[in-house]
Amino acid sequence: MSAVGDRRWHGLLVNGALLLLAVLSLAPLLWMASVSFMPRGEASQFPPPLLPSTATLEGYRALFASAGMARNFANSLLVAVAITALSVLLNTMAGYAFAKLRFAGRERIFQLLLAALVVPAQVAMLPLFLLMKQLGLVNTYWGVIVPAMASVFGIFLVRQYARGIPDALIEAARIDGASELRIFFQIVLPLLRPVLVTLAVFSFMAAWNDFMWPLIVLTDQERYTLPVALAALSREHIMDVELMMAGAVVTVLPVLVLFLLLQRYYLQGLLLGSVKG
Amino acid sequence: MRASLAAWVFAAPALLVLAVFFGLPVLAAALLSLTDFDLYALADPAHLRFVALDNYLALLRTPLFWKALGNTTYFVAVGVPLSIAVSLGAALLLNSPLARMRGLMRTALFAPVVTTLVAVAVIWRYLFHTGYGLVNWALGHLGIAPVDWLGDPRWAMPTIILFAAWKNFGYNMVIFLAGLQTIPQELYEAARIDGASRWRQFLHITLPQLGPVLLLVGVITVSGYFQLFAEPYVMTRGDPLQSTVSVLYYMFEEGFRWWNLGRASAVAFVLFLVILGVTALLLRAGRRRDLL
């Protein structure tokens, strides 16, 4: 076989395999979207239809009207936005301190934080629940938000990035008499902008997708976030495929769109943070 | 002096949150696992008794705990190699100079990673439905009789493993892709001049060069997969015949359904020790091959 022919076959093979992987990756999501527009009961037939015979919003209407998912959507949004805002602020302040400010025990505390990464979060969950009960935060939004307000991963991410800021810049501002707070907000924060976006995207997605802790700390359907509500719904309405798929679309779409818009920042953070483990 | 005070002001809020809502609970879990904390103690702490290692010893005599540990080990032992193989394969394809529309393909392959686990687990329940699922319908065209994917104890865990591979492979793919791009092209050119086949280039250049990345990915994936919970919670509730009860699922049931918080804490610690042990083994194997 000629070299050109060999190369062509190879190219066909590579692109064919990639296309197959892409179809397998996206097919469940496309099927979800399609079924969410089907009239009630249409998906539970054999052979299973791929597209709705007539597109309808019945599933979505049932979801928001009778299943009350609008409330859960609002809960998820509130919790995820609050966690994102608070954790970005706290992690950025701490990451900057670990990178650029001197204080006693700095290295030792940082080592301790990194060591804590090996402890699975679930080990803390049982006593954390008792603590939340003591604080009266069980079945409140704060119960979900408070433990997520800081993360070792976030501190680490900011520290790595902030180390690139020249010391001379901060020194010069100090000599000019700027306060530490002013230096942080007016000089450091603007320089950290890219990593702040990365951190915000990560925090929001993690908070939006989180399941186990909200499942534990939220006990009332009214307070459930979307994943918890969806899991509960699937236990009651498992035969109602169209309703369930409408619920899945509403849950997945916000994070998917956010990822598509801010992909570059997300993937950067993934590579910087893959030291996490 | 001023800088030192400022540093504490900046670092303290995050450190405080981590200490109170993570550090403290982890230490408390260790103590809790040595008590008989249960529903009665939850109502009145006076019922609390110190039982030393009784919870751990009781676990060793509990068949369901061993079953959960076995199921989780099965999930890790098959799921991790499968996921990593798919990730590596996808990264190699994307890294090929012949690949077209790379950015678009990478986005498509990565999409499952960012989706909400609970939502996509629900989708898979329907796709793998025995009667009207698309998977059995497609297999029917190949003459394969319907499989009761999530209802048959032999198939439930393999189905969950397939799901996990689908959901997660994009994550490691991106890490591999970055690793592949750091391999010097000259190595491949030299091999081609020597007439080495693609397969030999992969074995003798790509794999060794990716060594440290493989180790990192292995460690992250193993510890992540040991924490299996939401998949069985949503897809099977641990059934059929408890074939998909994972260690964390068992911990959740013991702790938050039966309120045996002492017992459940012991389960959490055993899982932690197992993860620590397996990670140490992986790192030792890596060190022996000079990957660290």
Description:
Chain A has 277 residues and is mainly alpha-helical. Chain A is built from 13 helices and no strands. The model of chain A has no long low-confidence stretch (mean pLDDT 91). With 292 residues, chain B is an all-alpha fold. Chain B is built from 13 helices and no strands. The radius of gyration of chain B is 24 Å and the shape is globular.
Output mean pLDDT of chain B.
Answer: 92
Query: What distance separates the N and C termini of chain B?
Result: 39 Å
Main sheet overview of chain A? none
Structural class of chain B: mainly alpha
User: What global shape of chain A is seen?
Assistant: globular
What's the domain count of chain B?
1
Number of strands of chain B: 0
Q: Terminal Cα separation of chain A, in Å?
A: 48 Å
CATH hierarchy, class of chain A: Mainly Alpha
The coarse silhouette of chain B is globular
**Gyration radius of chain B, rounded:** 24 Å
